[in-house]
Amino acid sequence: MLPDLTNYLLFAKTVAAGSISEAARELGMPKSTLSRRLTELESEQGVRLLHRSTRGLKVTDIGQAFLVHCESLVAAAEAAQQVTQMVQQTPRGDIHVSCPYAISQSLLVHLLPEFMALYPEVRIHWRVTNQPVNLIEEGIDVALRVRPTIEDSSLIARTLSRAPTTLYAAPDLLNQHAIEHPLDILQVPLLSMHYSSGRYRYELTHTSGDKLSISYQPRLITDDMFVLREAAIAGQGMVALPNYICSDAVQQLQLQRVLPEWSLPLGIMHLVYPYRRGLLPAVRVFVDFLVERLPSYAQQLYYNEHSY
């Protein structure tokens, strides 16, 4: 059976106030009632928690150890109350968002105005970067990241979408080089995103389940997917990119899918934010908006690539 935690909270409040009289005044309850509840708590615990005298209160040694946990209960109760109060508040104020270039330009550029129309009192600081960002140190409320997993225990991560990635090249380049097997890829110039490891490798999976790993040296390395796409359109090399980045170019016959029976690992998009007991209203509605709208919008872009 769980104990009645009210007396625990009253004990912590009394110690913080410095006297039973002051605590009773702050709590809005009779001094006699508070004194009785403290006596009940000591009786329940079977130890003396407070020494009372005309000069005030003195916490006993065991009372000090007990107080630490009671203060944690007070903090948890106040945080819980804050969460419910925030639900009733109008979202307003600043939110700081970090997002990679490709996601910003292909997905969020269309959804952001929709959010702004829904919440006119929210001001957004939109930081576009492909560099790693420490959310806590740099004051970022929400970030979008593309990677297999988010291992930082200080962050909450919610998976938004899984984007297929395919090899693409310009028709003229493919006319010059017959690409019938993954190893044939090494005959043409290759374009790649930057990887901090310095290792460049295609991890390919055939529709039959066969797997193949191919190491390569890129001719062009950049953090910008759109630069890679334009270089591929210009016939300067083959590139592996998310389908939604190249869908328009494929429809306009500027790019072709290469070895479509072979697939690359999915690009998994996560929404991440620092672990807190309660999100501010503006941050909460932004998180909820992206969780609701972005997955379906991303899927729509993916299916558009297959509609031609």
UniProtKB/TrEMBL annotation:
Record-annotated HTH lysR-type domain positions: 11-60
InterPro entries the record matches: LysR-type_TF_proteobact-type, LysR_HTH_N, LysR_subst-bd, WH-like_DNA-bd_sf, WH_DNA-bd_sf
CDD domains: PBP2_CrgA_like_4 (cd08473)
Transcription recorded as keyword: yes
Keywords tagged on the record: DNA-binding, Transcription, Transcription regulation
GO BP field: DNA-templated transcription
GO MF entries: DNA-binding transcription factor activity; sequence-specific DNA binding
Record-stated family: Belongs to the LysR transcriptional regulatory family.
PANTHER family: HTH-TYPE TRANSCRIPTIONAL REGULATOR (PTHR30537), TRANSCRIPTIONAL REGULATOR, LYSR FAMILY (PTHR30537:SF31)
The protein's name in its UniProt record: LysR family transcriptional regulator
